[in-house]
Amino acid sequence: MEKMKVGFVGLGIMGKPMAGHILRAGFPLTVYNRTRAKADDLGREGAVVADSPAEVGAKSDVTITMVSDTPDVDQVIAGPAGILEGVRPGSVVVDMSTVSPELERRLDGKLREKGCSLLDAPVSGGDVGARNATLAIMAGGDRGAFDRVLPIFQVMGKTITYCGPVGSGQLTKLCNQILVSVNLLAVSEALVFARKNGLDPLTMIQAVSGGAAASWQLLNLGPKIAKRDFQPGFMVDLMQKDLRLILETATANPTPLPAAALVQQLFKSVQIKGLGREGTQALAKALEALSGI
Amino acid sequence: MEKMKVGFVGLGIMGKPMAGHILRAGFPLTVYNRTRAKADDLGREGAVVADSPAEVGAKSDVTITMVSDTPDVDQVIAGPAGILEGVRPGSVVVDMSTVSPELERRLDGKLREKGCSLLDAPVSGGDVGARNATLAIMAGGDRGAFDRVLPIFQVMGKTITYCGPVGSGQLTKLCNQILVSVNLLAVSEALVFARKNGLDPLTMIQAVSGGAAASWQLLNLGPKIAKRDFQPGFMVDLMQKDLRLILETATANPTPLPAAALVQQLFKSVQIKGLGREGTQALAKALEALSGI
């Protein structure tokens, strides 16, 4: 069976290793990146380097986008020389960025006018997951399109879930981020409570992490907070982008989310202190400041 | 080596199976319970049934208490015919209830006047953990006393942690409950957000539970909320007792805990609806009510 022709737009810290996995799995690959040097790296490995997203769309059965924020996705798909200008009927565009579910529905509508469709398939697992091909991929859109693209998802990720109609991937990713950020708030409050009351933080974490209090955030970021390691696994500024998407979606379809709103406000105080590029575990500093630590 | 003589006061849903493990491990056991029938059950298995906590204290090297709330602990240890009236110098009292750290310090002071000491050693793992001897035990107090009592802890629990001076067990348990309740709030918000936006809740849970969003609460209580199963693993009313202890301790030693305070307020609305005896996962109903579901 002939391999699908794949296109990839956006070769940043996530996109470049993801595109590399696709190339090494033997899919013919066309790439585009605003800063051409990153595309040329993949060019030397055998990818075709295109001059525009439109050209990528024209050469691909499946075109993947992985860019920073909602306006960037809109631009590379629906902007001048965007994918929409090049796509061939029957092809699939897969947006793996984390952006507004509403934009995905809108872009899907535009693609359907050209006989194509959109999958929204954001990921979790960060740059480590991208490099190790262990991403969780949460996909929404046409089920048939999902099944066609699945072999490509499988070279980039570990847990791949079909979540429902277009937008469902983003909505699931936003659920993921509610859980991540509010669990981290739990960790931050427990650690500041421990510290104010003279407990050794690492002993506390060890004592509680075998049971109902356990979470990925506690096991992975709790010890970093205890050891004052605020290097970013995932940056505060990026979490704020996701919390903004959550709260916008929860405004459009009114859903009071008091804890998500609280954590967004506390992250704002971390940003005000100039720590937006630290890891999300810097949330603990906001709690410590409240406690006069 | 002769086995330590053990006493056990409080044979409720937790205490009775815990005392049973001690008895079956071969420790000579004296028991007391306000409702004598429960003590008689253990009497038929070979325990001595005493007429008062004081009598238990007089017959034991290590006397364990496992009762409901702060005033009950105060009563069985320092009240009329309490353990303090019977204890022999050199013995250890171990309170395994979840109560105020401050009370434990006070009782330790009184016991020291009699040449004894207190370990505070609350547990997590619920009645299932008590029956299966898989409790997490978080202990505070004199390190030498902890080492002596460790063989008894080992027949009741799996993860046993020495947390520091007296009160540290309770403080660690309170950290545990901050994590448990705020993680559950995260699960409740993610599920109400999913439901309002048309996602299948079980698919969402499956999609996110392999990564940074994972928690015990998500994996264990998330599916119960999705399936509308509000049977108690741990009751709302008991969680409120623990949140009260957390917020009292955070008032005495001022520590702003906005998320713990928020979850306590939301549980209050669950109680107002008459659902205090449902499982803590009924927290989701408070979020659903806010969203008009």
Overview of this protein structure:
2 copies of one chain form a homodimer. The first copy, chain A, is α/β, with parallel strands linked by helices and 293 residues long. Chain A has 2 domains: 6-166, Rossmann fold (3-Layer(aba) Sandwich); 171-291, N-(1-d-carboxylethyl)-l-norvaline Dehydrogenase, domain 2 (Orthogonal Bundle), CATH 1.10.1040. In chain A, 55% of the residues lie in helices and 13% in strands. Chain A contains 14 helices and 9 strands. Chain A has helices spanning 15-24, 36-44, 53-59, 70-78, 83-86, 101-112, 126-132, 143-156, 168-196, 201-208, 216-226, 236-252, 258-272, 283-290; strands at residues 6-9, 29-32, 48-49, 62-65, 92-95, 117-120, 123-124, 135-140, 157-164. In chain A, the strands form 2 sheets. A 6-stranded parallel sheet of chain A has the order 3-2-1-4-5-6, with helices on both faces. A 3-stranded mixed sheet of chain A has the order 7-8-9. In chain A, helix 9 crosses helix 11, helix 9 (168-196) crosses helix 14 and helix 12 (236-252) runs antiparallel to helix 13. The longest helix of chain A is centred in the middle third of the chain and has 29 residues, at 168-196. The first copy, chain A, is elongated. The termini of chain A are far apart.
Describe how the helices and strands are arranged.
2 copies of one chain form a homodimer.
Chain A: E1 6-9, H1 15-24, E2 29-32, H2 36-44, E3 48-49, H3 53-59, E4 62-65, H4 70-78, H5 83-86, E5 92-95, H6 101-112, E6 117-120, E7 123-124, H7 126-132, E8 135-140, H8 143-156, E9 157-164, H9 168-196, H10 201-208, H11 216-226, H12 236-252, H13 258-272, H14 283-290
Helix pairs in contact in A: 9-11, 9-12, 9-14, 12-13, 13-14
